[in-house]
Protein: SAM-dependent methyltransferase
Amino acid sequence: MSIVASPVYAAFLISSVSDTNDRCGAGRVNNDDLLKYNRDAWNKQVNDANRWTRPVSIDVINEARSGKFEIVLTPTIPVPAVWFPELTGADTLCLASGGGQQAPVLAAAGANVTVFDNSPAQLDQDRFVAQRDGLSMRFVEGDMADLAVFPDQSFDFIFHPCSNGFAVNVLPVWRECFRVLRSGGVMMAGFTNPLRYLFEDERVENGSLAVVHSLPYSDLDHLDEPHIQNAIRAGKPLEFAHTLTDQIGGQLRAGFLLSAMFEDRYADSDNDPISKFTDTFIATRAIKP
Ligand SMILES: C[S@@+](CC[C@H](N)C(=O)[O-])C[C@H]1O[C@@H](n2cnc3c(N)ncnc32)[C@H](O)[C@@H]1O
Structure:
């Protein structure tokens, strides 16, 4: 791989190996540098008003207070009501879920919510809703693969919307979720079907569905290519596509039992070329026995 003469890249191009389980190129970067880069990138997404950073309205919170709410793990389909555990007083971890969206809704519905995210600006969106609407919530900044700040069995419910595509390795995320959940607890997760990343244009900028990438996919393996150079210049987060073995098998290997799932895709209005043909997002409901 050629080294690109940009200070942004330079931070990543170091040779330490951070996790021997890595299957997505982590051996070529330091995880702290990746976290730092993606933190800045998500802070920028807040400035740019990315759809996953826009706080919910006061009306949505007021409805949730009376038990009426819909939240998503994936782009479009609301999580079925029957998936939720009793929320009143449930110790709930909204994992890599900043943006003032799901966490304050669950808090308004009665849950005791901790929102955990790598981006302080994303956490500020949740703080904004909490202050605006008088909700009591806890805000913790950190890496989803390391929940050491929480003792074992701290939560009854984990809500983890599509965000593990920003983690270089998803297996530690499932292991940590299992550890911090209480027995009988529920974990809901959304994630991307890796098939999205087969295509030349996995960022859907020119609509090309030519198959060029093998899976699992890592942006770190393509740092010198134009599509990643453009993404980094635009301050976009770096992404990873984990295999279904790691996404679904990884939950099972961590000890979870799966009780339900559904697939989803972008809405027609998003003009996503792949969504014209197939679902590319998956939501799962898991239980810690
Ligand atoms: C697509 S947004 C998800 C939040 C949004 N509320 C939703 O509905 O999907 C992805 C989130 O993951 C967070 N994130 C990315 N990498 C992370 C990491 N390693 N640990 C914790 N959070 C991370 C980002 O800061 C961002 O808030």
